[in-house]
Each structure stands twice: as C-alpha cells, then as structure tokens.
Design brief:
The chain is α+β, with helices and mostly antiparallel strands and 909 residues long. Among the domains are: 80-131, no CATH class; 647-908, Alpha/Beta hydrolase fold, catalytic domain (Rossmann fold, 3-Layer(aba) Sandwich), CATH 3.40.50. The chain is built from 17 helices and 49 strands. The strands form eleven sheets. An eight-stranded mixed beta sheet has the order 42-43-45-44-46-47-48-49, with helices on both faces. Strands 1, 18, 19, 20, 23 and 24 form a six-stranded antiparallel beta sheet that branches. β38 (594-601) and β39 form a beta hairpin. α11 (739-754) crosses α12 (771-783). The radius of gyration is 28 Å and the shape is globular.
C-alpha cells in the first residue's frame, strides 16, 4: 500500500438490513396523511404489492432470502401428490386391514366400492385437500356459523383493496457497537412508533424492562417554518443522536436520495447534514450513516464522500473532490448496486471507528443508456440516463482507499487484485486491523478471498476457488460474521457461507486470519442449504443460522456450538421438528438473548418479539403475553375469511423422463366441480440460482386467479435454479434459455396427463416477470403452442446482448467465447408465436434494469411476420417494478381481466 500526497482532512431504500436504521413502511397516498400511514404500521397483504413486484427482479441465490421448493424429503420418485388414485387406494387398503376377520363381508363391500371408485376418487380429489396437501392458510379458517355452505370467491379487487392485509407494528433493534459478551449486558433495546399527544413519535423501549421508555422525536417536525415528515431513521445506542431522512426519492433498486438531518434527542434540535460550504439550503444526499461506535457520520453528496463527528456537526471534512457522473466515491454505480453489492453505499468502517475504507468507481468507458421518463415533469428529469455495461463492453474499474481518522490522511490501498478486470464482490472489516474482501475475474469464474492487514501493510490470500470445478459461477456473497477472540481462539475469526465439496451452501469457520495457512472448518454438512447467518451468542459461543434441513421448501432456525471439539456434531434444530413446513425469519440481538421472529408460512403471518427461547414457536408464544410482544394484527385477515374461501395449496415434485425431479406448487380453487374441466396458469421465473417458491403464505395475484377465475395455478422451478446444489444448478451454465423451457413444458404435460379428466387443454397459459418474462417467451418458442395457448411476458429480456454485463457474463461468459450460447438464448423463432391463441406483452418505458428496447425489438419482429394475435401495454415513466402513477394496480387488474377473457370469454358477452 502506498500513501497518497493528498492534504490532510481532505440505506438501502426500503431494504436496509441494519436493525437500527428503519424506513417507514410506506409513503402516504395523495389522500392520506403521513400520521395515518405511520399509525397503521406495516401492512402485509401476504405478498404485498412492493414485495411481489420486487420478487421479479433478477436475483441470484445468494441475494435472495427465498428457499428452494420441495424435493419430497429427498425422494427421487414421482410425488404422491400426482398419484391421486394410488394414494386413495392406500387409504382404502389401510381401512380394509381393520376387518380381516370378516373376509366375505369385506369382499362384497369391496366389489361395491370398486364399482363407484372412479367417480368417488375423482370427487374426493377435486373437492378438498388431498392426503398430501399440507398446512395451507385456508386450513386454519376460524369456525363459522355456516361451515357447510360455500362462501364467496374473491377477485383481484379484494386483493388490491387490502381485504387480506395483516398489520405489522414497527420494531427494530438498536444495535450496540459490538457483540455483547453476556446476556446481562443486553436489555433488548429497540424502537417503535406510537401515538403520543395526538402525534406519531419514535419511542425507544426495552424487552427486558417493559417500563423503560424514551422519546426519540416526532415523525413530523418543523424547521425554519416548514414541516417535514420522516422517511427513515437511524438511532445510536446511547439514545442521544439520530439520523433522520425526509423527502426521500427512490433512484434504483437499493438507492435513494433524501434530505438528511442530525437530531439531538435531548434538545430536540435538528441540524441539516450537508457540506460545510452550503449553509443556506437543504441538499439531496445519496445517504448518511453512523460509524459502528456512533462517533462519526459519513455521507455522500454528488458522488463525493464526507464525514464529521457527531459532537461537532458543523465541522465537515470532505474526503474526495473528483465526484461526477462517472467518478463515484463511496457509492456504487448501477451495475455494482444491482448485481454485486446490493447497496448504494460502499464505505466500510473499522469496528473501533479508527478508519474507513471506500471504493472509487470509474465509469468513464462504460456505455450509457438513456431512460425515457415520458410521464415525469421536466424539473425531475435531471438525469435520464444510466451507465450500463453490456456483455463484452468495458466494465467500471475499481480502486480502494483508506482514510485514517487520527492522522487525517488518505491512503491508496494496494489490493493485489491480479484477476482480469476484477469485480469486488464483498468487503468488511472483521477486526480493527483486518479488512476482508472477495474479488473475482470479469466473468465471475475465479474467486479470491483476501485479508488486508492494516498494521502490517500487507495482503495475503485466505481462500481461492475455480468454479469450473463444479461447472458453476461465483454468486453474490452472503454476509460474513466476525467472531471476536474467545475461550477457543485468541484471534479474530469469521464465519462464511459457500459451497462445500458436494456443491451445497454450508457454514465454514475461519478461526484466524493471520496467514494463508489457516484451514477453514466446515460446520454444517448434508444435502440441504444454509440460507443466512442470523446471530452469535458470545457466552456460549453458539452461532444461530437459518436453513432448510427439515424440508427443502421451508426455513427454520438452527444453532451450532463453536466451543465443541467436533463442532458439526453440535448442530441442533431450535424449533419443533414436527412442523417441517414452517417458514421463519429471525432478527437476533447482539448477545443472542432476544429476538424478533417472523413466522411467514404456511399459516398466516405472525410476528413476535421477546426472549429468543420464547419466540421460537409463535403459536406457543401466543399464550405468553406477559413476556412476548405481539407485533402483528391479523383481525382484518380473519374477518375476510368469514366471507371468502382461500384456494388450496400443495407442495410437491414431478419426475421427468430423464430422471430429473422438478419442484412445483399447485394452487387449486377451494371448490372444484368434478364434472368440469379447468384452465391452468403456469407461473415461472427460473433465473440461474434463484429460489422462488417456498412455504411462505401469500394471498395475491395468483391466489385471486385460482379462486376468482376457477383456475389451477402451477408454480414450476426448472433446472438451473437454486437450493439443490450445483449438480442441479449448473445446467444453466452457458446455456440459459434451454433447460428452463424444456422442464416447464414436460412438467406441465405430465401434470395434464395425470389429471386429464379435469383439465381444459385449450386454456393453458404461462406467465412471468423479468427473467420470468424471458422464460415465458422462450417456453412458447420451444413449445409452439402444443401445450401453452396463451402467454404473458412482463418486462422480458429478449436478447442477452442487451442486458448488463456482470449478470449475463456470470452465467454465459464472454460473447465472443460463447457465440452459440448467446444466439440460442435469443427470442427468435417468431413462427412459434403465430400458433398461440393470444400473447400479452407489458413493459415500462423507464425500466433501468431490463430496457424497453427488448420488448420493442421483439414486437417489431411480430409485426414483421404480420402477427396480430398479441396485446401490448406500455407504462410511461415506470421502472422495472411498474409502479409509477398507480402502475401496479393498473397492471394487476389488466393481467387478471386478460386471463379472465382468455379462460371465460362468456363473462364479457
């Protein structure tokens, strides 16, 4: 590392995972006051609009919190869910064995039953949950006055009106500066939002002492005669300062701009955060953030990095002065935000606040794409373009810099990146003097994990991987946990999640980082995957993590003990082993004493907070109200269940002809007439490494289609997706768009064959969004209307040469080295679309992710071939989420009614 000669002292929007940094649940509608929004808390309509839309962005396995679908407990056989005759025959035979002392009587009964078995089996199978349908939300409908009658169906209108919404109260732990070494040091400090004296206020409370209460500040406040409403807040652990954001404007998936303020909690004084040369106005910052010990705040203005001490906010230090649209300091550009770091902030503080390291990205050679925002006012069109590298074109270059607080000096960090056109996939201080970072080559084939020893001014290699060994690629990194010195190891270590030799994501413990000779200890094993590290308990040296060992589609909490000699043998499931389908997520305090548990399925959402041991099961926590906080209110949901039936959901798999097992979710109407034939809507995503379908509960678009349009919905997870190890995932390598359609077509055909008496084969549709839109078009292209008669593609890629470089090359390699793969991946067999009954294509003009040129070029080819059997809806000003100017509501109404017209045309006569 070489020192520079520069002079001395030179949030993720709606997705911030820092527990002390919260974005309020939603922005007020035009006819709704901000106080009303805060008062309502976070509303969870089981797949709310924002969550639903965000799901359709390109997410690889490591970025996604979704677990992979069912493998039927490891079975390689066809699921029993698709053998209705045999499963009910087994039911009959089990009953027969109870009467083996009366064989002649049984024979007569058997003959009678055989005569009616076909009709009876069909009726039973199609009238309610089969033997393999498990724990669907509708199985938990409260007792009703008329349980024998069929209640009302619901449509997309009931969904959009919030009939099935569940409120969730604001609750965020306020993090201490470091791991707490004992439970006694941890009061379970958190903040919430409550109504006080007629106004909404942020309140700090404790889980240990329920009488503790400290007011932080009002949600709305005045400054120089103007009124402002808080969009997000960060609170320091001493409860003396808070960072407030107002007037927040979304940029891309993880980024935003806002006015930021430093609040002195005791005095109630708000101080605008801004460069020292600007004194007469508020400015939009990219972010503002506390250092780990809350001594400093760093912020970014016009792509330059600044910081100041919280006790002297008027003394602001400017660290860089070359920020521009192509030089970005401490902030990511579009492709790094979307495809690599999943954040807009690229600043990493040492845990003792002594220094920080940040990136300098250079986009000078990166191609620029102009975004058409037709629906935006002229004054909001300050930047309508984005630096967007496409496959084979120059990527941004990256450098690392270190700023030493005490010396006031900026250093250039010599990172020894070595690799061709390196990509920085992850970075973090794992001790006050050790900075860990992960880099790959341009195509994400080679991974190197390195540690920069600041006190020795040297870099050494800790781990290296060539993913060609398992025909894979480097995925987005999961969060690394730093482990402080303890009774087992005198050094700082860390925990990481990466593939083991069998190709499954598991936990590895690095007890030291002092040399390249340190051997990682694998802590978890088996044909299942660890999804995330959740917490650490210093007292016991237990590590808490989430995984899907109990069932491939679920997620539970586990613990493993670092103090044990055979650490992997200490693995324990912390929840009921009989509830294999449960899906939980946890937020655990820094001592491991307290937790917030979110039960996400398959029953309705429940959220609890309290002692970790008391919230492991939300059902038992219901009966312990004195010690456990209930943070969700499902009264509205339960009231709706008194009026509406929910569809029935089952989780299973189908065995393809080549022996590949494909996971599916089946959503059926709650009532099915055995004499009728039903349409099918197949829902797909299929992106490489993605895990889309789980046991999480949802009542949204597809449930409305199933129940309101008497349609069977199938969600299919084809080859190339995640959760089954690299043997299943690597099919996508250099060959996207090939196996996904093949698997979807064969799976759908087998389902129709197994249920042929009840399927209307002229009314089979497929739909998807983003990569799912691409998969939809590619499936239609391969199928040529043999199986699918209708298709819906929302914001699809149609030519991968027009998508971004890092995502595409991760799976496909460089275009000049895989020309055949890129050519085969295009949507180009237009004649296949001529055979469709109808196609629907949808896109937003301001889509920064999948550019609308994909849709325009595809539709132009349809026109060129004189095809008119398609519809198109363009959303001016909408990005990839299609939410601008009520876009989401218009979109889902449009989708619902388009399917209604396709499946039930008489309804429009």
């Amino acid at each position: 590392m070489s020192k520079s000669h520069r002079r001395k002292n030179s949030q993720l929007f709606l997705q911030n995972k820092n527990s002390s940094n919260s974005v309020l649940p939603q922005q007020p509608a035009s006819n709704q006051s901000s106080d009303e929004v805060v008062r309502s808390g976070s509303v969870q309509p089981f797949f709310d609009l924002e969550r639903e839309v965000d799901l359709f962005g390109f997410e690889d396995v490591s970025a996604s919190e979704l677990n992979h679908p069912i493998r039927n407990n490891g079975s390689n056989r066809l699921s029993e869910d698709f053998e209705p005759l045999s499963q009910w025959s087994n039911w009959y035979l089990n009953g027969k064995y109870n009467y083996k002392r009366r064989p002649y009587f049984l024979l007569v009964i058997g003959v009678i039953m055989l005569l009616t078995m076909g009709t009876l089996l069909s009726y039973i199978y199609w009238h309610g949950p089969t033997a393999t349908e498990r724990q669907d939300p509708s199985d938990f409908i409260p007792d009703l006055d008329d349980p024998g009658s069929r209640r009302n169906i619901f449509t997309i209108e009931e969904i959009l009106h919030g009939e099935f919404s569940i409120k969730e109260e604001t609750f965020h732990f306020i993090d201490p500066p470091e791991w707490l070494k004992s439970h006694d040091q941890d009061p379970g400090l958190y903040f919430t939002v409550e109504q006080k004296t007629g106004q909404m206020e942020f309140i700090a409370r404790q889980l240990f002492d329920r009488t503790f209460e400290q007011k932080i500040g009002k949600v709305t406040f005045e400054f120089e005669g103007k009124r402002y409403t808080t969009s997000s807040i960060q609170i320091n652990y001493p409860l003396t300062k808070a960072i407030i954001a107002t007037n927040m404007e979304k940029q891309y998936r993880h980024s935003s701009k806002a006015h930021y303020w430093l609040l002195d909690i005791h005095s109630g004084k708000y101080t605008p955060i801004r460069p020292k040369e600007i004194k007469d106005r508020l400015v939009y910052l990219n972010y503002a953030h506390f250092s780990p010990h809350y001594n400093y705040i760093d912020f970014n203005y016009n792509n330059d990095l600044y910081f100041f001490g919280v006790e002297s906010p008027s003394t602001v230090y400017r660290i860089t002065n070359d920020g521009s649209n192509i030089i970005l300091n401490g902030i990511t550009d579009w492709v790094y935000e979307e495809e690599v770091l999943s954040t807009d902030r690229s600043v990493w503080w040492a845990p003792d606040d002594s220094r920080f390291i940040f990136t300098k990205l250079n986009d000078v050679n990166v191609s620029t794409y102009e975004i058409d925002k037709y629906a935006l006012k002229k004054e909001n069109k300050d930047k309508n373009y984005v630096e967007y590298p496409v496959p084979g074109s120059p990527n941004p270059t990256i450098e690392l810099y270190q700023f030493d607080i005490s010396a006031g000096v900026l250093y250039t960090v010599t990172t020894d990146l070595e690799l061709d056109q390196p990509i920085l996939y992850y970075a973090k201080f794992v001790s006050p003097t050790q900075f860990l970072y992960k880099v790959t080559d341009r195509t994400s084939r080679y991974l190197k994990v390195k540690v920069y020893e600041l006190d020795q001014n040297k870099v050494h290699l800790l781990n290296a991987m060539d993913t060609a060994a398992f025909n894979g690629w480097v995925e987005k990194s999961k969060n690394v946990f730093s482990i402080p010195p303890n009774k087992v190891s005198k050094d700082f270590g860390f925990l990481d999640i990466h593939p083991d030799r069998n190709g499954f994501n598991h936990i590895f413990y690095y007890p030291s980082m002092k040399s390249s000779d340190v051997k990682a200890i694998q802590l978890t094993f088996g044909e299942w995957e660890v999804s995330e590290l959740v917490g650490f308990e210093y007292e016991s040296l237990k590590v808490f993590f989430a995984g899907n060992r109990e069932h491939p589609m679920s997620q539970h909490l586990y613990a493993i003990d670092l103090s044990k000699e055979n650490k992997h043998e200490s693995l324990e499931l912390l929840q009921d082993p009989n509830k294999k389908l449960d899906y939980y997520s946890f937020e655990i305090s820094k001592s491991g004493r307290f937790a917030k548990a979110r039960y996400l399925g398959p029953k309705p959402l429940k959220v609890k907070a309290g002692s970790l041991l008391e919230v492991l099961d939300v059902d038992s926590a219901e009966n312990n109200n004195n010690n456990v906080l209930s943070l969700s209110d499902d009264s509205n949901f339960n009231e709706s269940l008194r009026t509406y039936d929910l569809p029935k959901t089952s989780y299973s798999s189908i065995l393809l002809n080549d022996g590949t097992e494909i996971n599916i979710v089946e959503i059926k109407p709650s009532y099915i007439d055995p004499e009728r034939k039903y349409p099918i809507l197949v829902s797909v995503y299929g992106g490489p490494g993605s895990k889309t379908y789980t046991t999480k509960s949802s009542v949204f678009f597809e449930q409305a289609v199933a129940q309101g349009l008497d349609t069977i919905v199938l969600q299919i997870e084809p080859r190339g997706t995640g959760g089954k190890g690299w043997e299943f995932k690597s099919w996508a390598r250099k060959n996207i768009g090939h196996w996904e359609p093949k698997d979807i077509i064969e799976t759908t055909k087998k389902y129709i064959e197994l249920n042929s008496p009840h399927i209307d084969t002229d009314k089979v549709a497929i739909w998807g969004w983003s990569y799912g839109g691409y998969t939809t078009l590619k499936t239609i292209e391969q199928d040529s209307a043999d199986t699918f008669k209708y298709g819906i593609a929302v914001a699809p890629v149609t030519d991968w040469l027009s998508y971004d470089s890092i995502y595409t090359e991760r799976y496909m390699g460089l275009p000049d080295l895989n020309e055949e793969g890129y050519e085969n991946a295009k949507i180009k067999n237009i004649s296949a679309f001529e055979k469709l009954t109808r196609l629907f294509v949808i896109h937003g003009t301001a889509d920064d992710n999948v550019h609308i040129e994909n849709t325009f070029s595809f539709v132009d080819k349809l026109n060129e071939h004189s095809l008119s059997n398609y519809d198109m809806h363009i959303f001016p000003g909408s990005d990839h989420s299609i939410s601008h100017h009520n876009g989401s509501r218009v979109l889902f109404r449009k989708l619902y009614n388009w399917i209604k017209l396709a499946f039930h045309p008489r309804a429009f006569q």
